[in-house]
Amino acid sequence: MNKKNVVHIGIIWANPYSNNLGVAALAYSSLALLNDVCRENNIDARFTLVGNRGKEKDKISINNCEIFFNNVLGNDHSKWKSLARLVLYPRRCQTMKLLNLDIIFDISEGDSFTDIYGDKRHKKFLNSKRFFNLLRTPQVLLPQTIGPFNSKRNEEMAFKAMKKMKLVISRDKQSLDYTAQFLPENKIKEAIDVAFYMPFERRKFDKENIHVGINISGLLWNGGYTKKNQFALEADYRSLIENAINYFAHKDNVTIHFVSHVLSRRKSVEDDYAVAEEFHLKYPGSVLAPAFKSPIEAKSYISSLDFFFGSRMHACIAAISSGVPVFPMAYSRKFNGLFSETLQYKWLGDCTKETEDVILEKLQTAYHQRLAIKEEIGHLNSNVVSYRLDSLKNQLLKSISNVKFSH
């Protein structure tokens, strides 16, 4: 152990400042989990977030507890220029902080250890893992979707990096089964998305109407980054959303809430809020949820709804983890792996395999079954989710303790 008997914990690819509140939720939840594990077991820990542009020293508040952390700018570790900066400008790059980290917990923004978003993004997330392997810093992949990889070479490079890690934790059974093809059993575990751990505070809406939350993915609405149906959806996403909104708009006792989970200040292809604003203007009786300042604010708002559907995975996780009947509209296997397999939750539409008419019919059925679904979700949270979160905390404690007592 170092002289001050402190464990220096690095968390990489977890950005609490992200305009994508799903990414921010992973950062908040990872910090909360690791902080609670250390505090509950009398471990003195210092946290460093790697890869963000926040101020050098910062904090977040969760459950009236302030969690302090350092920020270290991310480097593209595939470029020699970036590596050279660590040597030539150690103070600016905070090189010693990187070298002094005792263990790395890598969340890969939840679903970015893949090449489905393009090779450039894949290499960025891969090369940080290679960098810390080179430093021989113990690494643990926090619960996330692993893959898929369209390129065999990308897959081979990814698993070569994972073989040198201490532990690879999947957030769904599909990812666990996938990693089991390449990694030994003692290196892989299955848990659940860390965002289930994030707290919330329920708001109060009037009880006269049924409050239905609708999340429209700006990314899917615009056809992906390529704007050409990048995710090969079988369903016409725009038509699906328009018809779904129209269905609820014609119900006298329903108040529609347009809830955005990606809020880009630059109005990028990913922005949910711009699309939500357009629909809010089309439907005067609807509610435009605010541009949330944190993922906790978003989850607190969603937790107060009576029914929710959408295509942002962490908006759907905010709903199900707070007991709200939810109908996710999936665009990748990360949805199916978590909801269908890990949670055995059948109320889901698969935009990659099902037509618009099929998904609309399933959505309407879920809405009419919302009270029964609410009971089902209560059982899932009390049993399946709580067990997996407890198991995850034990795994994290074991990983940190192994580092602590090896010093």
UniProtKB/TrEMBL annotation:
Question: In Gene Ontology terms, what is one molecular function of this protein?
Answer: transferase activity
Polysaccharide pyruvyl transferase domain span: 31-332
For this UniProt record, give its keywords in alphabetical order, as a comma-separated list. Answer: Transferase
Per the record, the domain of life is Bacteria
Does this UniProt record's set of keywords contain Transferase? Answer: yes
Pfam families referenced in this protein's UniProt entry, alphabetically: PS_pyruv_trans
Protein name, per record: Polysaccharide pyruvyl transferase family protein
Originating species: Paraflavisolibacter caeni
Lineage of source species:
Bacteria, Pseudomonadati, Bacteroidota, Chitinophagia, Chitinophagales
